[in-house]
Amino acid sequence: MMGVSPITVRSWVNRGWLPATTTPGGHRRFIRQDVLALAGQQRSHRPAGGRPLRLLVVDDDPQFRGYMLELLGELLPDAEIEAAADGFEAGVKVVEFLPDIVLLDQSMPGLDGASVCRRIRGVPQLAAIRVIGITGHLDRRVERDMLAAGAECVLHKPLDVAALRQALGAKNVAARAGQVLTAG
């Protein structure tokens, strides 16, 4: 109804912004009027730019993808966060969801992260999307491929949360181009 991920809704409930009841099975239920009231507040509290920060997590590992959704929901509770399981789904979601930042795994079946990044960079209307590469490989060639494709930096798995915060908070993307962030 509001076009946000379940993580975002959970964050709203935890912050007390959206009243909810819980069923015996642990599912949350909402009153339609409460949701509509929150939707009106969200529109009125958005920055002059229009909408909240949008992030897209792209990773073929469902456990890592779930971890990232939870982590980003905690780090950026006001953000809208979506996920894609592979490069093809990422292409569809980038066009439909129009994220501000894509957190993109390099090693995926079908289209790898560098291929997805090149396709994003190849569309002028998507040029402002920030791409942060993620890899579980310690191979410098993988990093170079992601950076050459247009990623602003590459983070390593297991993910260093401080490095993720630093990458997400980067103000000057041009100054960071070519930087590789590794777990300490």
Automatic annotation (TrEMBL):
One GO process term, biological-process aspect: phosphorelay signal transduction system
Any one Gene Ontology molecular-function term assigned to this protein's record: DNA binding
Modified residues (4-aspartylphosphate): D105
Highest taxon of the lineage: Bacteria
Sequence ranges assigned to domain HTH merR-type in this UniProt record: 1-39
Keyword Kinase in record: no
Keyword 4Fe-4S annotated: no
UniProt xrefs under Pfam families: HTH_17 (PF12728), Response_reg (PF00072)
Gene3D superfamilies reported in the protein's UniProt record: 1.10.1660.10, 3.40.50.2300
Keywords attached to this entry: Phosphoprotein
The Response regulatory domain, residue ranges: 54-172
Protein name per Swiss-Prot or TrEMBL: Response regulator receiver domain-containing protein
Species the sequence originates in: Sulfurisoma sediminicola
Lineage: Bacteria, Pseudomonadati, Pseudomonadota, Betaproteobacteria, Nitrosomonadales
